[in-house]
Amino acid sequence: MECGKMYDVSIIGCGITGSAIAYELSKRKLKCVVIEKENDVAMGATRANSAIIHAGYDPAEGTLMAKLNVRGAELCKELCEKLSVPYAQIGSLVLAFNNEEIQTVNMLYKRGVANGVKGLKILSYEETKAIEPNISKDVTASLYAPTAAVVNPWEYAVALAETAVVNGVEIILNSEVTGIRKSGDAFEITAGNKTIKTKYVINAAGVNADEVHDMALPHSFNIIPNKGAYYLLDKTEGKRVSHVVFQCPTKAGKGVLVAPTVHGNLIVGPNAIDSDLNDTSAKDTDLSFIRGTAVKSIPSVDFRANIRNFSGIRPNSDRDDFIIEANGGFFDVAGIKSPGLASAPGIAEYTVRLMEENGAYFELKENFINTREHVRFNTMSHEERAELVKKNPLYGRVICRCETVTEGEIIDAIHAPIPARTVDGVKRRCAAGLGRCQGGFCGPRVLEILARELKVPRESIEKDRAGSYIVRRRED
């Protein structure tokens, strides 16, 4: 199947980076399409990470990571407020346990000041203990960064992508890119059974970015998939810490953290091991390492409160910085490892400026829509709930008891600008199934609502990725 229309810009990949670029481009008068190989957006590293908006003290001065982390973190706060995305600026601590690590903390402080991070302080053990009572008695000092935050990463990406769609961007799902060919002044992209013609290509393909690059240009970089596993603990552990608590970073990464989530849980992890790009298992060896490392910071963490383990794959590269480069009309936005989530809006701004420097200038719209309404029943007052239920009784029918998610919210997710089509797609949009029972009670009801609203048989509904069917009809 060939798409007859010519696009100005095609973005390959719809994780947080692709979503942020789509949002930034949707401010302009152009025809833009996002091409995603999965059956939903935010299906890669975006949905399986630490959910941290890093302050920006870790990247080396002068790198793209340093510049775009600080800028992206600033923009994130504003975007989450406008787009109704859960966000909490809780600050972070980097703990030091000996004199050598105190030197690391001092180095990170100086680096953060040079990068423009606001409010950094070096705290003594006593000062650290005063704001984080459950830290280990072996802590000697810490770096405090008040601008660090936590966010819902997949809803952040969904919100950016949905707002882009509302402003005219198209999204094509279930369409893996298998070929890119230059044709005159344009490109022809083969994606699934479609041929997409476009003037400019943005490669935001995450762990597949090197493969996508090589379809269009000579080989230039390698993506090295790197796995990190996590514990997600019940809300009974959610107040164990009130900041994001790090240990000193190493060559392997920022290390094992202990942090509250925006939903009130506690997240612990990750480790860092090079891995197959499809291996999202959380093995016993991964989890044992995480437990043993985390208790060095917070000895009282109760891992018996675990409700889920998961792993994500980071798109590390063989370079020490983000890869954001122009080559004709082809733009690589690759190797977006941590702090990629924090940097995403900054990356989007930078990419669009790079396009403009290379001749791709588009006028700004006068009527850009920069807000998004999202009903969140469990955060409303009794009066607000009563008013909402009066307008639509389906908001008074709780389906997910753990997270107090109503049928009205689930239906909103199914009929959103980028509609949920799977049980986990609903979870990513409204948190149904995110709580203690992990969908054990509400999952079957969500499946029924999906089938009813989409007017399809229950056995056609998938749990998550393509082919993950839940119900099978018995053959007589």
Commentary on this structure:
With 476 residues, the chain is α+β, with helices and mostly antiparallel strands. The protein has 3 domains: 1-87 and 148-222 and 318-373, FAD/NAD(P)-binding domain (3-Layer(bba) Sandwich), CATH 3.50.50.60; 88-147 and 224-316, D-Amino Acid Oxidase, Chain A, domain 2 (2-Layer Sandwich); 377-460, Arc Repressor Mutant, subunit A. It has 12 helices and 22 strands. The strands form 5 sheets. Strands 1, 2, 9, 10, 11, 12, 19 and 20 form an 8-stranded mixed sheet that branches. Strands 13, 15, 16, 17 and 18 form a 5-stranded antiparallel sheet that branches. The chain has a 4-stranded mixed sheet with strand order 6-7-5-14. A hairpin with a 2-residue loop joins strand 11 (186-191) and strand 12 (194-203). Helix 1 (16-25) packs across helix 8, helix 2 packs across helix 8 (340-357) and helix 10 (407-414) packs across helix 11 (423-430). The chain is globular and about 65 Å long. The relative contact order is 0.16. The mean pLDDT is 96.
